[in-house]
Amino acid sequence: MKVYIQRTLKRTLKICPQSDGSVTVIAYQFLSQKAIADHIAENLPWILEHLKKVAKHDGGLVKKSQPDATSSEMPREYLELSNQVIKDIFAGKSILLCGQLYTCNASTNSQTHLQDDCLYIADKQFATRELRLKAIKTFLKRMSNSVLSQEVSKWGSYFALCPTKIQFKDLHGRWCSCSDAELRAIVLDYRLIQLPQHLQEYVIAHAFAHFAKSGHTVDYFEHLACYIRDYKERQKSISSYDFLLDV
Questions:
Q1: Residues 6+ apart with CB under 8 A from 161
Q2: pLDDT, tens digit, for every residue of 119-167?
Q3: Which pLDDT band holds residue 221 (cuts at 50, 70, 90)?
Q4: 231 near 203, Cβ under 8 Å?
Q5: Measured between alpha carbons, how far is 3 from 18 in angstroms, rounded to an integer?
Q6: What is the pTM of this model?
Q7: What is the Cα–Cα distance from 18 to 121, expressed in whole angstroms?
Q8: Cβ(121)–Cβ(103) under 8 Å?
Q9: Where in the sequence of the chain do the CATH 3.30.2010.10 domains occur?
Q10: What class has domain 83-246?
């Protein structure tokens, strides 16, 4: 039984059996692998029974999938962003976090914070578009430092490399700034935290791969494919989110 973990900023732990015989677990970003494994073990009888029902419902047609051993599965359905949602993001009325959409609301609390499906911004900072976007920028940088720093550490262990510097900043139209083996710096755009996890992983692995191979040569992409086999699909998918770099 293949188990794929999809991380989220929501405090949740949900098991979703799939028609191809795999199981997707939607888990809170900071929940440990052990806690997830224990939850799966406790619910294994239910999972196996539900997989049988799903397979029977789909006529027994099972599709094989081969995700990366070190990375998250490509989502089965991409979040479709309507023109109105994109307008709301540019207006500071909605925000994406790890690929999930949150509505922005005013709050009497002075600290910008997440609660359920909303991002709450202090009343004074919610008054105008410029103030909302400024508050969101500060929040995204804070989340990047706490969440993406862990992702960088995780991928550093996969590559057996330790960066000398990790920075999150406005890269003016790029998701990452590529460094060579001598500098070994990981510089990411702070808005990367808004992308789904599998695209965050692609950008981080892309940066690490440059420590071994400079330039975007055939050798470089062969090296990247050792860690992200479906890098071409992810590279194509990330373009759907490039508008975020202009917000």
A1: 184, 208, 211
A2: 999 999 999 999 999 999 999 999 999 899 989 999 998 998 888 889 9
A3: very high
A4: no
A5: 10
A6: 0.70
A7: 37
A8: no
A9: 83-246
A10: alpha beta
